[in-house]
Amino acid sequence: MATIKKLKAVKFNQNHLLGIQDLSFSEVSQILEEAKAFIKLNKSSSKKIDLLRGKTQINLFFEPSTRTQSSFELAGKRLGADVMSMNIVNSAIKKGETLIDTAMTLNAMHPDIIVVRHQDSGAPNLLSQKVNCAVINAGDGRREHPTQALLDALTIINRKGKVEGLKIAICGDILHSRVARSNIYLMNMLGAEVNVVAPKTLLPHSIERLGVKAFTDMKKGLKDCDIVMMLRLQNERMHGSFVPSPREYYEYFGLTPDKLIAAKKDALIMHPGPMNRGVEIDTNLADDINRSLIREQVELGVAVRMACLKIFCKKN
Amino acid sequence: MKEKLMKEKYLINGRIIDPKNKIDEMGGLIIDSKGLIKAVGKGVSNQNLPSDAEKIDLNQSILMPGIVDMRVFVGEPGYEYKENFRTLSNAALSGGVTSVVSMPNTNPVIDNVSMVDFLKRRGRDKSRINIFPAASLTKNTDGKQMTEFGLLQRKGIVAFTDGTKTVQDPQLMSRIMSFASQSQSLIIQHAEDNILSKGGLINEGEISTRLGLQGIPSVAEKIIVERDLSFLEEYFCKYHVSQISSKKTVSVIRKAKSEGKTFTAGVSINNLSLNENDIGDFKTFLKLSPPLRTEEDRLSLVEGINDGVIDVIVSDHKPEDEESKRLTFSQAATGASGIETLLPLSLELFHNKSIDLIKLIAAMTSKPAQILNINKGNLDKGNDADLCIVDINKPWVVNKNELNSKSKNTPIEGRKLQGQVLKTYVKGEIAFNRAD
Predict the structure, then answer these.
(1) At residue B333, does pLDDT exceed 70?
(2) Mean pLDDT of A245-260
(3) Which of B195, B198, B209, B325 to mutate to test binding with chain A, by most A CBs within 10 Å of its CB?
(4) Which pLDDT does position A89 carry in this prediction?
(5) Given an 8 Å threshold on Cβ–Cβ distance, is A123 in contact with B210?
C-alpha cells in the first residue's frame, strides 16, 4: 500500500461540507493542500491506501449523476472505505418516504459519512441535522456544489500556480447552476475577479450582490480573462422557454474562437460537464489540449473528493 | 331556548379603546345580564357601582373590542389533525380574537349550501368564538365555475374567496365580479399569478439567489391586483385583496384609491413584521404565501397601514402539522400558525413607533367588521360584549409548546414580545383568563 505524507491540520468549524459559504479560507487551503498530495497517489501504480479502513461511506444520489457519483465512489475506495451507493430510483423514497425518515434509516446503519445529491436546495442541510455522521453535499438544487468548485480551484492552481489575481468568467445558465454559485463564492474567496456572462433570462436576480460583474455581451464579459468556465444549458431550456433556440444561444453565448479572442491569449477553458458540443462550446475548443482543462478537472475531482472524505470522515 | 341571565359585570379602571366610536379614555364598561354592552366610557367608574354587581378591576389595562380576524384556516372538515374548532377557539381566545372568517380550503371545500350547515353546527358546538364562514369563489376552488353566491349568502356566508388560490382565468374573474355586483357579495382575492409564481418558493431577490430557491416575483401579485382593479371599473362589486406583500402592490392600491376606486386591502401580520432575511438557513416555518419580501417592502406595508391604503391586518393563521414542515423547503407545506400571536406581534409595531395604537386596533376590529358588514369589532351599546383585555407592556417570549393551537408552526418561536392578552369575553362571559 502507498503512504501519504501528513499535513499540519487546520481546525474545521463545520462537521459537514454543505457549501463553500460555510468554509473559511484556511479550511479551503487545507482541503486543497490535502488534495495535492492525492494527485500523485492517483497517478501511481498502487492507488489504494488504508486511511479510511473500517469506515462506511454511503452515496445517496436523488438525482442521476455519472461523474460526481463515480468520482466519490472511487475516492472512497482509494482511501479504503466501504462504499455503498444507494439507488434511489428503486428505493422507499420513491414510495413516499421523507428525507428525514431515509436519514434515520441510514443513520441506524452507523455510516461515517454520507455523500448526498438532491434536487432540492437545502436538502443536505436538513439531512445533516438528523444524522450523527458527516454529510458532504454533492450538489443540492441550484444552491451549491462545493466539491466541484474545489476541484475547479485545484485545476486552476495546478496550471496557473494560484487563483489570486486571476480574472475568471463564468458563462451560461447561471440561474439554475449550483456550480456557478459555489465557484463565485470560492473564486472570490481565493482572490479572483469574477465575471458572469449569460442572457438576461438566465441571470439570477441580484447576482451582483454575490460579488460579481454581470454581462450579457460575451466579448465584454471575457475581456482579459485568464479562465473561461462554461456551464451546461439543459435541453428543456433551449427551445423558447429561456432562450429562443440552441442556434441563437450558440451564436451569442456559445464559446467560439472568435469570442475567445477577447480573453487573454493564454486563457484556459473549463466545463463541469456533461457538455453540449455546438450549443455552449465549439467542439474543437473543447478538445484543444493546449486550452481545455476539461479532462484535468475530472482527474483532479477524485483527488479533491479524497481530501474531503479524509477531512470530514476523521472529524466525527 | 330559555335565555340564562347572569350577574351584571362592571369592568372598571381601564383604558377603553373603541376605534369605531373614536373612544380612547380611562373608564369602564358594563355588561348587562344578557351579556350585552350596557354602558361604556369614562362614566363607568367605582363611584356608581351597585352593591350587587360583579366588579372587575382592569388595573389600567386596555379594554378593546374582541379582534375580528379575516383570514383563518381551520382544519374541519378534512384536516382535523391540523386544527379543529375546539383548538382554534382556544387559540383565538388566548389571543383576544372573538370573531374569525374561516377559509374554505377544507376537504371537501366549502362550496355548497350543505357544507355551510355542517360548518355552522360544528362551529357553534365546539367553539366559543364567532365563526363567519367564507365560501369558495369557484367550485372546489378549481377556478372554473363560480359558486352559488346568492344561496350561500342566504345561509350566512359573509365572503367569497378561493383562500390560498387565485382565480387565474380573467374571463371567469370578470364574470364573478359582474355577478357579485348584483348579489352584493364580498369577493376576496388572494393575489398571485400562478404562471409567474410557478415553482417559486420565496421572494425573488438576493436571498432566493443565495439559497438557490426559485423566486416569486412581486409582479406576480401586482399584475392580479391591477387586473382585478381594471375589472372593478366595469363591474362594481365589493372587492377586497386578501393580503398584499410588496411595495409595488402598495403603490398600485394607493394610486387606485386616490383616484376614487372603492375597494379594500389587507396584510398579514407576518408580512408586516418579518422579512425574507428571517428565512435564514431554510426555515420552513417561514415558507408563506405571499412570501416574506424585502425590508423595503415591509416598510411600505407599514406605511400602507399608517396612511389607510391598507385597511386590515390578518393573522393568516394556517396550522400545519410538524410532518408537513419537516421536509426540504420545496416540499414543505406553506403557512404559519398565528392567531394567538396576532395582537402581541402587532403591538411590536406600536412599541417601535411604526404604527399608532388606535390605527393598529382599528385594522383588527372595526375595519374588518365594516368590510364584512357584521356588527362586531366595536363597543356599541346593546352589542354582544365581545371584549379583549390587554396589558400592552407585559414582556413575554413565544414558546411553541405553550401555544393552544393544535399545530405549533409559529414563525416567531423564541421572539421576545411586549403585550399580552389577559382576558377575553365572548357575549359577556369570560372565555379566556390568563390568570387561571
Answers:
(1) yes
(2) 96
(3) B209
(4) 63
(5) no
DSSP B86: H
Could you report the per-residue pLDDT of A41-50, keeping only the tens digit for each?
999 998 899 9
User: For residue B323, which residues of chain A lie inside 8 Å, CB to CB?
Assistant: 98
Q: Give tens-digit pLDDT for A96-130.
A: 778 888 888 889 999 999 999 999 999 999 999 99
DSSP string, B9-30: EEEEEEEEEEGGGTEEEEEEEE
pLDDT at site A205: 96
Partner-chain residue, chosen from A98, A143, A209, that has the shortest CB–CB distance to B327: A98
- Do residues B71 and B271 make contact, with C-beta atoms less than 8 angstroms apart? no
Q: For residue B360, give the amino acid letter.
A: L
Give the single-character DSSP code of B219: H
Residues written for chain B = 436
Taking residues A47-54, what's their average pLDDT? 93
Residue A197 is predicted with a pLDDT of: 98
- Whether B316 is catalytic is yes
Cβ-contact B394, B327 below 8 angstroms: no
Query: What is the structure's pLDDT at B46?
Result: 81
Considering CB atoms only, which of A21, A122, A144 is closest to B282? A122
pLDDT digit string (tens) for A269-303? 999 989 999 999 999 999 999 999 999 999 999 99
DSSP for chain A, please give it.
-------PPPPPS-SSB--GGG--HHHHHHHHHHHHHHHHHHHSS-----TTTT-EEEEEESS--SHHHHHHHHHHHHTT-EEEEEEGGGSGGGGT--HHHHHHHHHTT--SEEEEEESSTTHHHHHHHH-SSEEEEEEETTTB-HHHHHHHHHHHHHHHS-STT-EEEEES--TT-HHHHHHHHHHHHTT-EEEEE--GGGSPTTGGGGT-EEESSHHHHHTT-SEEEE----GGGTTTTSSS-HHHHHHHHSB-HHHHTTS-TT-EEE--S---BTTTB-HHHHH-TTTB-HHHHHHHHHHHHHHHHHHHHHH-
User: In the numeric block, which cell numbers belong to residue B230?
Assistant: 381594471
* Cα of A187 to nearest chain B Cα, Å: 16
**Which residues face B15 on adjacent strands?**
B26, B62
Query: Hey, are the CB atoms on A205 and B205 less than 8 Å from each other?
Result: yes
Whether the pLDDT of residue A199 is over 90: the answer is yes
> At B339, phi and psi to the nearest 5?
-65, -35
pLDDT of residue A314: 72
Q: Confirm if B203 and B176 have CB atoms less than 8 A apart.
A: no
Q: With CB atoms and an 8 Å threshold, state whether A206 touches B212.
A: no
B213, A144: Cβ pair inside 8 Å?
A: no
Of B69, B297, B311, B316, catalytic: B316
pLDDT of B211-225, one tens digit each?
999 999 999 999 999
Query: Which whole-number Å values give the CA distances from B124 to A210, B75, B306, B316, in the listed order?
Result: 55, 15, 36, 22
Quick one: pLDDT at residue B1?
Answer: 46
CB A187, CB A211: distance < 8 Å: no
Which of B67, B85, B68 lies closest to B76, judged by CA? B85
Which of A125, A178, A210 lies nearest to residue B282, judging by beta carbons? Answer: A125
Separation in Å, CA of B328 to nearest CA in chain A: 5
- For chain A, say whether B331 makes contact (Cβ under 8 Å): yes
